[in-house]
């Protein structure tokens, strides 16, 4: 099958996580024998230079085409419809270039609402079936902003098959009552093949806690610091919490750590690459996920894949991957419940079977599992669209 993935972008040295979901799924689909091409239009405003025109990256048998002309924000004076047509035109240009080299795709596969909006233009112009998958956390906002509601109602009804990464996100989308062609299906995010369990050789009485994510309010790291302060005297003498990631709240979080005199226990480690994250997860005893709102956390899957039991807030699709055998749940924004859950897990960490946690995660969220689910959906969508033509 020839698949054109309509993505936000492709990971780069400046932004290694931008477009990483799309890239990882593209690689998994390629491993099943599909021919996969990634197309993206960069609409962002960034304070670093980017090549004007089309940039091509080829890695692992997958070619990615990205076009950049002008950031969306610099066109603020134009009506939204004109801006949307401008970016759809850019997507059309790189689509034609990709077709000239690779041939016409069997299916279009778009990630996120804005990309799906551009993909709809290709679907309608070239009559290629379109499957769109939604990850966007903005669809969890209540009340939904009018501009997003308008995008949803214009875009989703034109998609041949719509997917969501969690059941709660599926329900949120269904609240729009847009006339979809088919029922929304759930396909979870997948965990990278780099993440796996390696047994620790030295078992000590110390406690190592790890958490990852952008240092922004929504990720709830301030709650984690408060919780650890609450129970610091009940934890083992030698305990450490490492928070991996960068973001605009770094200074504020460091001030909070300093105010509690926890500098020797809590470390803001900054951004890390995948290999470094894997090593830090494998060396830890538990993973804490204090987020105030998610759809379906890849960070949690990465921790589970490394055999870590997880303490997580009950948000998004977290109940779809956390159960009594691999973690504990607490209500969003409840510091006391988070404190109790961390302490309970710290006192019972040896009761968790880390190999079993890894095996369970891989059975449901490994690349080949998610790629096969997508393949079946693509095949069914192609058959269904042919039957109505």
Tell me the structural class: alpha/beta
pLDDT average, as an integer?
93
> What is the count of β-strands?
14
* Proportion in helices: 25-40%
- Sketch the major β-sheet: 8 strands, mixed
Radius of gyration: 22 Å
Widest sheet: strand order? 3-4-2-1-5-6-7-8
Helix/strand order, N-terminal first: EHEEEHEHEHEHEEHEHEHEHEEHHH
Q: Please report which band the strand proportion falls in: under 5%, 5-15%, 15-25%, 25-35%, 35-45% or over 45%.
A: 15-25%
Shape: globular
Question: Low-confidence spans: pLDDT under 50, at least 5 residues?
Answer: none
C-alpha termini separation: 20 Å
Q: Give the helix tally.
A: 12
Describe the structure.
The protein has an eight-stranded mixed beta sheet, sandwiched between helices. A six-stranded parallel beta sheet has the order 11-10-9-12-13-14, with helices on both faces. The mean pLDDT is 93. The protein has 389 residues and is α/β, with parallel strands linked by helices. The protein has helices at residues 20-31, 80-102, 113-126, 146-155, 167-174, 221-231, 250-259, 274-282, 298-305, 335-347, 354-365, 367-387, and strands spanning 2-7, 35-41, 53-59, 62-68, 107-111, 130-134, 161-164, 185-186, 207-212, 239-244, 266-270, 286-289, 310-313, 327-330. The chain is globular and about 65 Å long. The protein contains twelve helices and 14 strands.
Layout: helices, strands, pairs:
Layout: E1 2-7, H1 20-31, E2 35-41, E3 53-59, E4 62-68, H2 80-102, E5 107-111, H3 113-126, E6 130-134, H4 146-155, E7 161-164, H5 167-174, E8 185-186, E9 207-212, H6 221-231, E10 239-244, H7 250-259, E11 266-270, H8 274-282, E12 286-289, H9 298-305, E13 310-313, E14 327-330, H10 335-347, H11 354-365, H12 367-387
Parallel strand pairs: 1-2, 1-5, 2-4, 5-6, 6-7, 7-8, 9-10, 9-12, 10-11, 12-13, 13-14
Antiparallel strand pairs: 3-4
Helix pairs in contact: 1-12, 2-3, 3-4, 6-10, 11-12
């Amino acid at each position: 099958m020839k698949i054109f993935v309509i993505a936000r972008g492709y990971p780069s040295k400046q932004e290694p996580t931008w477009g990483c979901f799309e890239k990882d799924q593209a690689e998994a689909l390629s491993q099943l024998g599909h021919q996969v091409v990634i197309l993206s239009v960069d609409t962002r405003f960034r304070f670093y230079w980017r090549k004007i025109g089309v940039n091509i990256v080829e890695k692992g048998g997958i070619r990615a085409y990205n076009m950049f002309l002008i950031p969306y924000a610099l066109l603020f004076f134009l009506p939204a419809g004109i801006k949307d047509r401008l970016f759809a035109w850019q997507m059309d240009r790189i689509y034609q270039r990709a077709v000239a080299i690779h041939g016409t795709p069997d299916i279009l596969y778009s990630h996120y609402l804005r990309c799906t909006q551009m993909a709809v233009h290709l679907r309608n112009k070239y009559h290629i079936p379109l499957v769109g998958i939604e990850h966007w956390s903005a669809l969890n906002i209540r009340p939904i902003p009018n501009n997003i509601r308008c995008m949803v109602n214009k875009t989703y009804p034109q998609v041949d098959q719509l997917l969501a990464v969690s059941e709660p996100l599926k329900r949120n989308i269904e609240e729009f009552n847009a006339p979809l062609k088919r029922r929304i299906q759930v396909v979870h995010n997948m965990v990278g093949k780099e993440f796996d369990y390696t047994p620790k050789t030295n078992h000590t009485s110390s406690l190592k806690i790890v958490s990852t994510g952008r240092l922004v309010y929504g990720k709830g790291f301030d709650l984690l610091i408060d919780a650890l302060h609450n129970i610091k005297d009940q934890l083992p003498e030698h305990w450490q919490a490492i928070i991996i990631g960068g973001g605009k709240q770094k200074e504020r979080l460091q001030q909070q750590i300093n105010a509690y005199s926890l500098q020797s226990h809590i470390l803001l480690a900054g951004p890390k690459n995948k290999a470094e994250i894997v090593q830090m997860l494998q060396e830890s005893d538990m993973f804490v996920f204090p987020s105030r709102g998610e759809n379906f956390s890849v960070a949690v899957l990465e921790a589970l894949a490394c055999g870590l039991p997880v303490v997580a807030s009950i948000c998004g699709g977290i109940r779809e991957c956390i159960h009594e055998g691999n973690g504990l749940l607490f209500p969003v924004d409840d510091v006391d419940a988070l404190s109790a859950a961390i302490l309970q897990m710290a006192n019972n960490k040896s009761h968790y079977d880390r190999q079993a946690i890894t095996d369970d995660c891989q059975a449901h969220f490994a690349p080949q599992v998610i790629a096969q689910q997508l393949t079946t959906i693509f095949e069914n969508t192609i058959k269904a669209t042919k039957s109505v033509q």
